[in-house]
Amino acid sequence: MSDRTVLRVKGRILVGPDEVRDELWIIDGRISYDRPVAARDIRTMSGWALPGLVDAHCHVGLGPHGPVDVDVAEKQALTDREAGTLLIRDAGSPSDTRWIDDREDLPKIIRAGRHIARTRRYIRGFAHEIEPDDLVAYVAQEARRGDGWVKLVGDWIDREVGDLAPSWPREAAEAAIAEAHRLGARVTAHCFAENSLRDLVESGIDCIEHATGLTDDLIPLFASRGVAIVPTLVNIATFPRLAEGGESRFPRWSAHMRRLHERRYDTVRGAYDAGIPVFVGTDAGGTLPHGLVAAEVAELVTAGIPPLKALAATTWDARKWLGRPGLEEGAAADLVVYERDPRTDVRVLADPLRVVLNGRVVA
User: Fold this and answer.
1) Which end of the chain is more exposed for a tag (fewer CB within 10 A), N or C?
2) pTM for the whole structure
3) Distance separating alpha carbons of residues 233 and 299, to the nearest angstrom
4) Inter-residue long-range contacts of 312-316, CB under 8 Å, 24+ positions, other chains counted
């Protein structure tokens, strides 16, 4: 080995929920569990190390009114990085963020392309707004642009009925999901309401975002199909404010949003108890700030998910689901170091000691 600086992390290395090591080495930006035989300069940091956290529902490049400038997108990514989020599934963005791939100091992003919504049935400036006859073509387009995911808007307020309503006829959804799968992409959908879920799941969808409409009769269907959910509870916390704002024009919708909010914890706990995969996502971007991953993990615990499982939903399990490595031999050294054991108190996640990305201490 040639002389070079290496990093040593000692203490408790949480390789998995049941696998703990005493130290790891970072050599040329990669993880090694073998002590280097020659190194002129060794820098050591101590603590409890986790794989870089995962935010599986995040929108880099998106602001309240649509796409944002590069400098704003950079600040969004840096805010996530400072919070320990080193892997993002960008669940829909109208911005081209490929330039981030060339920055070793910014989180890695798995993109779902741009949202695909029904005409005038989503937030203005966010999505491709189309009709069902064009859904297959747009799904194919975004499957080719993304990194193995496509994002549909499965339901939104229908102003004619004054409440949430499905965006897509079942036959259109079924054909579009089949096309995405043919192209090697998985499909997820924004869904608040109950009545959009069955058709999407039976059509073969892979994941549902928010999933506030999960009911006792739908939970077994999700579990049997292995459909994951990303509850975004820090976003669902805004429902009462949204309901208040829409009360005068859409009282039926407002009442519905309040009901979904009131049962949110029971919904998530029921899904977890049934064996539905649950992952951490914040819905950062748009109207929510970035850097909320620790708050979302805490919300999952409040919902009744055991702390270790909530931790896995943003680390080991989330990375496996997305096909990305954790603290494995030879993997890129993306990790976060904490002062205390995050397995016993997930609030520790809000205060990282060190953030290491591609083998460099960046925070």
Assistant:
1) N
2) 0.96
3) 6
4) 312/17, 313/278, 313/279, 313/280, 314/53, 314/54, 314/55, 314/279, 314/280, 314/349, 315/14, 315/50, 315/51, 315/53, 315/54, 316/16, 316/17, 316/51
